[in-house]
Fold:
Amino acid sequence: MSIKVNLDIVLSERNMKSKELAEIIGITEANLSILKSGKAKAIRFSTLEAICKALDCQPSDILEYIED
Amino acid sequence: MKENTNILTIITWGVLLAAVSVLLNDMREFDFNQFEKFQNWARTADKSENWFTSKNAIEWSYYIISAALFFWRGYLIYGFSYFLSILKEIENGNYFSDKNICYFKKIGNIFIWYTVNVLVLRFLLALIGESTFNFFNELKAEFTFLIPAGLAFYILAEIFKRGKEVEEDNELTI
Structure:
């Protein structure tokens, strides 16, 4: 997939665990894991907004386009 | 939804039981004992007579075709029984499951196979002179509507296949 999710990097920069983030943004750990692993087919604006708010970052910090 | 599925399950059971009882009654009325008189066919058959046009061969064909018609009616009832499996899946909340897609295809297959085979068998029955066959009258008969119904089930299977993909996409939207 040409869109890479850099959630792991941002999480480690913020010293935050996946479990904590999942609790803050109100999704299950399983769904967060799907997002982190790049298996997700789409991301809702509301989820992206919650992640950006929780991690105090921009969408571009989380999502990266890589040309195939 | 659960209430609706329960009602539909009860109706389906009612239809199935009625169809089975009608089939069993027809089989009971059909005198299978007449087969016995053909058991000594080889001994009683006129050796000089052409086998294909002999009375025994024609009557045997009649009984074989009648038995085949009973078989196909049973097969159609078996097809109806898949509705129960579909309702069970829906009751469990698995609307777009692979099983449902498979059941829809099977019902479509059964409906079409039943109609085509019964048409052929009725034609053969008319050929041996035990009944009359008018293709257009047969087309008017109720059972021919099973072909469009069978095709409708194929279409439903395709729609459910697409529904399954959309459901998967939805589940993978975080």
Observations:
- Chain A has a mean pLDDT of 90.
- Chain A has one domain: 3-65.
